[in-house]
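Preliminary data (for renewal application), benzoic acid complex.
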Amino acid sequence: MSLRIGNIAPNFKIETTQGTIDFHDWAKGSWTFFFSHPADYTPVCTTEMGRTAQLAPEFEKRNVKPLGLSTDTVEEHLGWIKDVNETQNTVLEFPIVADKDKKVAELYDMIHPDEDDTAAVRSVFIIDPSMKIRLTMTYPMAVGRNFAEILRVIDALQTTDKQEVACPADWQVGHPVIIRPSVSDDDAKNKFPQGWKTLRPYLRLTNLK
Ligand code: BEZ
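Predicted structure:
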């Protein structure tokens, strides 16, 4: 069965470009951006790895650790990282899982046989510091991911964890948020003293301080 939002991310122990990791030990206390890609030495994957490396300060600011995965070996990953660094003008410092036996790819349902029998599709798991899966996304092999969306959804999850709000369509940091319908107007007076705009009783917008 595939993994769902709210599930605890299954643990695994595996070789990576930075040595063997026990996933839960490695990830504990941070958010994780866990993502698979089809194969080393392929063009779209090269740009995605480069983009993840370039965004290191943005991930760090949000307490997020990136973790890549493909069904290649550590040696293949290490050779390819040199190409990523040279062609994408970056220094890739996050670990990449070497899942030659497809153990983790199968555990996380990253292999979709009607797309490819052996290589992983472009799966994304955003996992919170308590190891709960908070978001999943799956992209096909020929389409690179939108990293602005990955950062945006992390910002939105972290915002909605802090206050009883939800984020509307296309929300960005600094935009108004929705006061959750479970919060009564009386409670909202204490929780959102800055006030709000009521478009409908179930649609109240406020600006966070
Ligand atoms: C790529 O990364 O360019 C790619 C990998 C597998 C299939 C199609 C594209």
